[in-house]
TrEMBL record:
Alphabetized HAMAP family for the sequence: UreF
PANTHER family, per the entry: UREASE ACCESSORY PROTEIN F
InterPro entries named in the record: UreF (IPR002639), UreF_sf (IPR038277)
Similarity comment: Belongs to the UreF family.
GO molecular function, one term: nickel cation binding
Annotated localization: Cytoplasm
Organism expressing this protein natively: Arboricoccus pini
Keywords assigned by UniProt, alphabetized: Chaperone, Cytoplasm, Nickel insertion
Regions that span the bilayer: none
Function, as annotated: Required for maturation of urease via the functional incorporation of the urease nickel metallocenter.
UniProt-recorded name of the protein: Urease accessory protein UreF
Amino acid sequence: MPRIIMVATTMTTEAAAAWLYRLMAWLSPAYPVGAFSYSHGLEWAVEQRLVGDRSSLEDWLDDVLRHGGGRIDAILCAHAYAAAALGDRPTLVGLRDLGEALAPTRELALETLSQGEAFRTTTLAAWPDLERLAELLPDRLPAYPIAVGAAAAVAAIPMLPALEAYLHAFVANLTSAGVRLIPLGQTDGQRIVANLEPVCVEMAEAARLAPLDDLGTATLMVDWCSMRHETQYTRLFRS
């Protein structure tokens, strides 16, 4: 796998505005990847009263970011970015397979692969200048962070902002799920997003330099909740 190399660049205001616009568009709740339909096992956690208020939801998401899917996604996104920046298609295809293999449950695999393919398809249709993305990610479901990382590299978006934006979108989506499930007020939801800002920044910086050997999780309760959600009688979410 490629080493992640940071390159110092000088960027004009116009260029910065262009990549920032794309980053905001791609990771907006309005981008049609279907993120709103997934809860990452949170629905069963609420059903079992493992999560039931603002504090417990914030603690749950903090753990997912530091020790679970958020951390895994950030590392995969960083390595996909590095491979795409080098035009290294074999490595990117290997990362695609790794991203699929790392999904611990059927529903979490559906979550990342469906969003990844929706992101790839939509981005290629809306931004035809990124046709190189189609060459690097051939037709097969890529995990969501791999699709985002590769697209960010092809679009010359700096890696660290891309990682931070990805993790923010991850947190914002699961917070929104929690607001609907618990339920919580919108202001409490935004307090959670604000309080987790330094965690997202920390994990993005760590992922930027992390080797693939650092991949691993310690959130067995999330995996268990995802497994139990597969047979939950009444469900709002697909995971």
